[in-house]
Amino acid sequence: xxxxxxxxxxxxxxxxxxxxxxxxxxxxxxxxxxxxxxxxxxxxxxxxxxxxxxxxxxxxxxxxxxxxxxxxxxxxxxxxxxxxxxxxxxxxxxxxxxxxxxxxxxxxxxxxxxxxxxxxxxxxxxxxxxxxxxxxxxxxxxxxxxxxxxxxxxxxxxxxxxxxxxxxxxxxxxxxxxxxxxxxxxxxxxxxxxxxxxxxxxxxxxxxxxxxxxxx
Length: 216
Ligand SMILES: C[S@@+](CC[C@H](N)C(=O)[O-])C[C@H]1O[C@@H](n2cnc3c(N)ncnc32)[C@H](O)[C@@H]1O
What we know:
- Helices cover 37% and strands 20% of the residues.
- It is α/β, with parallel strands linked by helices.
- It has a single domain, classed as Vaccinia Virus protein VP39 (Rossmann fold), CATH 3.40.50.150.
- Helix 1 crosses helix 4 (78-91) and helix 3 (57-65) packs parallel to helix 4 (78-91).
- The model has no long low-confidence stretch (mean pLDDT 94).
- It binds S-adenosylmethionine.
- S-adenosylmethionine (SAM) binds at residues 51-54, 58, 74-77, 80, 102-104, 122-124, 126, 137, 193, 195-196.
């Protein structure tokens, strides 16, 4: 972490970062009582969850654009979390909360069935070698979990800069009975993040995917 990231975290961490029960590995979120979202946000609103937000560009832009929604970000990388806290504080936002930990654990243990209007996964797993494929975030089990956490009619949005990961995402998600691929591509306020800019500069093509939870 840089000095300024440390300072953002010290100064504004309490405002944005929610503490949850921990056990074992630092990023693991064990089984525990789900979050009381009304208490966490101080209001009841549609919830948008981002897994692996990196430096927080997307959450910050979205929370400014749609202040009527609540946003919850999971990030395992402490410097990314600190950078996000800095951006949120600079923007004066109060509709975003962050959790330092694994977003899959978080979806499973901290959020209840049909609690999310949207779930976002933009550029997960930057490692693209074949030996890393077994660690991919998107999997049949992940699709089941996402489908259960989305409200009926809610959306899963994803992006990747690796064509074979895009193929894998569509193979896994197209075959899920509760998810239906939508024609919409990138939503207009999704910014080009530092990570995406690097992919573009290296000539990679970005694939945006949207799925709607269709079953009741
Ligand atoms: C390649 S970066 C992309 C960041 C950002 N989404 C963007 O569009 O620029 C992936 C990020 O996801 C985080 N990450 C990966 N797996 C995660 C998980 N299971 N839970 C939370 N964060 C995760 C990594 O720490 C990293 O910051």
